[in-house]
Structures are given as structure tokens and as C-alpha cells.
Amino acid sequence: MLRRNHDLHSNNPDLYPRIHIGCPLRRVPVLVLLRARRLGRSREAMSKTKIDWADEVWNPTTGCTKVSQGCKNCYAERIASRFWAVRKFTDVRCHPDRLDDPLHWRKSRRVFVDSMSDLFHPDVPDGFISEVWRAILMNYIHTFMVLTKRPERMIVAIKTLADLSDGIIPD
Whole-number mean pLDDT of the chain? Predict the structure, then answer.
């Protein structure tokens, strides 16, 4: 089980997370900026990416369903059809075993969360979203980027998680 780092209760505002919410093309990026010391041990990440604006991808959930015209040419669905043998892309799964992966990254990284899914998909339980949020808050040396096509659920989840994430300031 993940525990929060006590540094989050510091009076230093630079240690508090900041979230920037925008809505380009109904993909709502949520940028969580957090600073701290290095955590965990070094481990070779299996999630390197060729995406320009990210250093790593972290997929605590996988699978998705189409919700708009913007999903017509989904790259994640194309990748899944190549690498997921018998599993359908619409089969949304949560992977609790991946929640501690960012703890093992020693250097600060820009992390694209759920490149192969949507964290705020209706099939992802609220409890699992809280666990992902806890993992993000514990790993505040990294910058986490969460994109969603379900901003309504994201806003509700952020309001619900307000007690968990002291200091988050929506812009």
C-alpha cells in the first residue's frame, strides 16, 4: 500500500502540487508539477517512449472505448491490435502492480499517464483512480501528464480527491 510523504505538509509552497487544466480538442491535459528528493532504487524502465513531450509512459490502466470523432484514428488502438494477442482494446483493465513503478525512477521525468487508456474511463473504479492519484502525489520529482476525453468525470474525481491532495491549485 502506498503512503504519502510527509514533505507534502511543509509550509513551503514550492513543494505543493500544481495542476493546469485546459481543454484543447476535448483532450483535457492535467499537469501535476511536484518537486522533492529522489525516491526508490534505480530500475531500468520498460516504458521509454518516442513521444517528444514525454520521457516515460506509465499505464496503470489499459484499454478504452471511443467517445468522440477524435477517437476515430486512435493510435493506442492500433498499437494494441499489434501487441495484444487475443485481448480486445475495449477490454479496460486496471494494473495495481504498476502503481509503484514511478517510485523506482531516480531522475526527474515527464511522465505520460495512460497512453494506452483513459484514467477517467467509466470502467475504471473510483478507488483505483485514488490509488493512481496517491502514486502521483508520492512521486513529486516527476511531472505527470494525464490526458482524457472525459473531462466531466475528471472534474468530479479531482473535487472528490481534494482531501487527499492538499495544496493542489486548479488554474
Answer: 75
Q: What is the pTM of this model?
A: 0.69
Report d(CA 11, CA 166) in Å as an integer: 12
Alpha-helical segments (H) within the chain: 75-83, 126-138, 151-160
3-state secondary structure at position 160:
helix
Comparing CA positions, the residue from 67, 47, 61, 33 lying closest to residue 119 is: 61
C-alpha to C-alpha distance for 44 and 23, rounded to whole angstroms: 34
Contact 60, 98 (CB under 8 A): yes
- In angstroms, the CA 8 to CA 129 distance is 20
Contacts (Cβ under 8 Å, ≥6 apart) of 58: 47, 98, 101, 102, 111, 112, 113, 114, 144
List residues bridging with 112 in a β-sheet: 57, 145
Backbone angles phi, psi at 6, to 5 degrees: -70, -15
Percent of the chain with pLDDT over 90: 44
Q: What is the pLDDT of residue 12?
A: 47
The pLDDT of 113-120, averaged and rounded, is: 94
- The grid coordinates listed for 24 are 484543447
Would you say 119 and 61 are in contact if contact means Cβ atoms under 8 Å apart? yes
pLDDT in tens, 56-92: 999 999 999 999 898 888 889 988 888 888 889 999 9
